[in-house]
Amino acid sequence: MVGGATILVGNRALMADRGIVIPGAFATGYDASSEVLVAKDGRLLGAIVIADTVRPEARRAMDEINRMGIRSILLTGDTKAVAEIVARSLGIKEFEADLLPEAKLVRIKALVAEGRVVAMLGDGINDAPALTEADVGVAMGSGTDVARESADVVLLGNDLVKFTETLAVARWTRRIIWQNFVGTIAVDALGIVLAAFGFLNPLLAAFIHVASEMTFILNSARLLPAADRSGAKAANHALGAEHRAEAA
User: Which CATH superfamily is domain 58-163 in?
Assistant: First the structure.
């Protein structure tokens, strides 16, 4: 209420609900934009057209996500025309537009119910329910307080490439863990077989133990930054010397 007049600010659905007539071609012809309609006492005054700018690093981040074989879906409260243009510019094949916060939440729940591992990225108040429901909620560092509190992970700043780097580190770490796990099982199985046939003496057992342990440590050291690997190698040499002294 302003000066006794009723001011409405919102989308076409709000205007239609209040019986305000909007010309069919009104505020059209703007690419990647959302319209905010303004009416006063039941009469349309005009529209504010807002255009989003895609972050320069967003396409590079999405290309990396697609290269990893991760399915990506754009969920937005913007209009279908805006969502289609943004999705096309980012290389996202699936998108859903005109979504209220409840609709985003329902969509995330459906994906989780399908047995998928879902990571939800968002920065607004409208994203908070979906961030909570996802397996991993990721909030942008400059997002709202509600989004950051609802998320499991908060990125520093707005650089989406940081998210792809996080994914790459996580996958690399998991791969190293599985390599060490399988290697440990293989070494233990080899030791059992050699012992069963009487070929495993104390000297060979010590050699297998030390060699395998050093191998797994060196394999894990690949996760360290390049500057730290020289120190890790030195530590491994010291550990090997310690085991040789124990064996002696």
Answer: HAD superfamily/HAD-like (3.40.50.1000)
For the chain, give every domain's residue range: 7-51, 58-163, 168-247
SS (H, E, C) the chain: CECCECEEEECHHHHHHCCCCCCCCCCCCCCCEEEEEEEECCEEEEEEEEECCCCCCHHHHHHHHHHCCCCCEEECCCCHHHHHHHHHHHCCCEEECCCCHHHHHHHHHHHHHCCCCCEEEECCHHHHHHHHHCCEEEECCCCCHHHHHHCCEECCCCCCHHHHHHHHHHHHHHHHHHHHHHHHHHHHHHHHHHHHCCCCCHHHHHHHHHHHHHHHHHHHHCCCCHHHHHHHHHHHHHHHHHHHHHHC
Tokens of 217: 């440590």
- Report the predicted TM-score, pTM, of the whole model to 2 decimal places: 0.67
> What are the pLDDT digits (tens) for 126-163?
899 999 999 999 998 877 888 888 899 888 878 888 88
